[in-house]
């Protein structure tokens, strides 16, 4: 495996499976477990229409329960694989492996997971990649431990060497590092030759410090889908309009503006006097489909239509995600795609 062959694939490239972790009474979902289980059942049903799902479970009891719930929903259990590993919570976008292709094999980048800058306990989550790797889940793969706090939700790649991220998040994690330093480190570890930074964009109820995967996502090397806001009375309006202007000013590798697809803005969802982060940009691309978070809002259908324009060759499948935003994340945040060949 030669160093120069390392490449960070885009999410739309062929996949082996999607990795998730089943919510249980020992996670932060405990108070609303029934509601969130329905989202996970719908998610696994959607994934397994197209490809396998690998479901992390905390122990034998959780596995037996999850298997029963999924089986009763008539899901193709031949496409569901359970692996046992302890975890603090189920946000595998941020605690799971960031997988690079390395010749005919793979390199699993295992960055530090600090519970989004020490906001939550993450001691088990920080060990998840190592534990899965030690179990032999991943084929033809080397694990590279990197002592640098980085979550998968904080980065987007076009698969061709361009990374998109938000300065707010990376600066929050590494306040003593300059933009030039962090750009150089990300470029080296992730084998990118361009890092595009957004300085605007945030969502109330987001405790990730503005992860890019709630704001703006590549749909192709020349296309970006982003969370818009068209309501001047909304508290997000100025910030998301400023982010839209930043995106319009970005250029592709060959100097052209990106094709931009603004997503509609859902009506405010308030829970115990707290605004929840209902972003349509937190979608998941899988083989043949895009799974879209739906919030039971009138604009769900409009968001589905925008994604159909951005991904004309994929089916757009809505997954009910309103229970997820109670814990400040959505569909992309609880999943991690695994490139084709990295698992059997």
TrEMBL record:
SUPFAM superfamilies: Pentein. GO terms for molecular function: agmatine deiminase activity; protein-arginine deiminase activity. It comes from the Bacteria. One of its GO terms (biological process) is putrescine biosynthetic process. Keywords: Hydrolase. InterPro entries: Peptidyl-Arg-deiminase_porph. PANTHER family: AGMATINE DEIMINASE-RELATED. This is Agmatine deiminase family protein.
């Amino acid at each position: 495996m030669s160093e120069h062959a390392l490449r960070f694939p885009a999410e739309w490239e062929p996949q082996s499976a999607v990795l998730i972790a089943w919510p249980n009474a020992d996670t932060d979902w405990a108070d609303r477990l029934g509601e969130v289980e329905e989202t996970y059942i719908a998610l696994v049903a959607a994934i397994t229409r197209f490809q396998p799902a690998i479901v992390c479970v905390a122990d034998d009891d959780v596995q037996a329960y999850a298997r029963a719930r999924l089986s009763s929903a008539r899901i193709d259990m031949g496409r569901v694989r359970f692996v046992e590993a302890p975890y603090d919570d189920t946000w595998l976008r941020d605690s799971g492996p960031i997988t690079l292709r390395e010749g005919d094999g793979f390199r699993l980048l295992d960055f530090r997971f600090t519970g989004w800058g020490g906001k939550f306990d993450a001691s088990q989550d920080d060990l998840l990649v190592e534990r899965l790797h030690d179990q032999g889940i991943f084929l033809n793969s080397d694990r590279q431990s990197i002592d640098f706090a980085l979550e998968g939700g904080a980065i987007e790649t076009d698969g061709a060497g361009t990374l998109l991220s938000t300065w707010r998040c990376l600066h929050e994690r590494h306040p003593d590092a300059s933009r030039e330093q962090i750009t150089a480190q990300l470029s080296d570890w992730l084998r990118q030759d361009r890092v595009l930074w957004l300085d605007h964009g945030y969502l109330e109820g987001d405790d990730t410090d503005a992860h890019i995967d709630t704001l703006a996502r590549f749909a192709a090397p020349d296309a970006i889908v982003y969370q818009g806001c068209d309501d001047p009375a909304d508290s997000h309006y100025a910030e998301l309009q400023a982010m839209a202007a930043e995106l319009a000013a970005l250029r592709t590798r060959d100097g052209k503006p990106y094709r931009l697809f603004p997503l509609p803005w859902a009506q405010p969802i308030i829970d115990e006097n707290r605004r929840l982060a209902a972003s349509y940009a937190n979608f998941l691309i899988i083989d043949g489909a895009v799974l879209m978070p739906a919030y039971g809002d009138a604009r769900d259908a409009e968001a589905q239509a925008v994604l159909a324009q951005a991904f004309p060759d994929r089916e757009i499948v809505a997954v009910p995600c309103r229970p997820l935003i109670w814990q400040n994340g959505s569909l992309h945040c609880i999943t991690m795609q695994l490139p084709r060949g990295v698992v059997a």
